[in-house]
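The following record pairs a protein chain with its ligand, manganese (II) ion.
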Amino acid sequence: MPISIRPLHPVFAGEVSGVNITADISTADFDAAMDKYALLVIPGQDITDAQQIAFSERFGELEIPGSASNVTAPEDRRLSGPVADISNLGPDDQLLRRDDRQRMFNLGNLLWHSDSSFRPIPAKYSMLSGRIVPDKGGDTEFADMRAAYDALDAATKAEIEDLVCEHSLLYSRELMGFTELSAAEKNAFTPVLQRLVRTHPVTGRKSLYLSAHAGTIQGWPMPEARGLLRDLTEHATQREFVYRHKWRSKDLVIWDNRQTMHRATRFNDTEVIRDMHRTTVAGTEPTVPLPMAHAPAPA
Ligand code: OGA
Ligand code: MN
């Protein structure tokens, strides 16, 4: 049965109806819909972690959250295996306190980003399941980076075509003023290289590959690089390219990190529970030929 999709925004994003991810979805149809919409909302998916993992694995290998992607010690994880904890809960299922280090690290999600752009082979799809969602606040915003690229003038497109950026969690956390990192954490967050303009492997569409993790441009003085990255991010997140998702419990939202950015929005997270579980389908190719994808460690 073909997938029935209602557009949610003029340039991207759609809501899928009449499917149950534990049963009747064709992987090929779903990939085709993702290539077109870049973001799909599937309401009413009352799933377990095992069901979420099984569906996600149909699209490729899953990333494993660990010391390369966060500051949570393995023994302090509330969720296990490939399920990333996007909640405001600690391992004891209690709300994280205001000064909790894990909470402060997680607040980096308030910045526009693309998941795992700090990995040498960055992520393909993220699948975020809303298990417990607040009545007010905690929406997620998404931006279509294909439409943002298309809207650039010809001179800017030519200028940025071959630029390569360094991405690291060090850069996004520095923007949030979260700089108290151990030597081991700094080492785990060594920058990687990513093209600034990437081409979708199936559709051939170009998109701006921006992320809060992008901290400089190879061969450029850093303030000049930050100036351009900031301008491009402001351009790409204008309202005409942005869809804001208001969560309902049991929504499964799936986005293509190769074609979109997203950010969390603030809510009273020290008072009400927001429990979201994310699986992440790994990408299949780097944007810069390996082994060049690892930038030299900063001196
Ligand atoms: C994520 C993320 C934003 C949110 O799951 O990767 O950035 O609103 N989430 O929770
Ligand atoms: Mn994210």
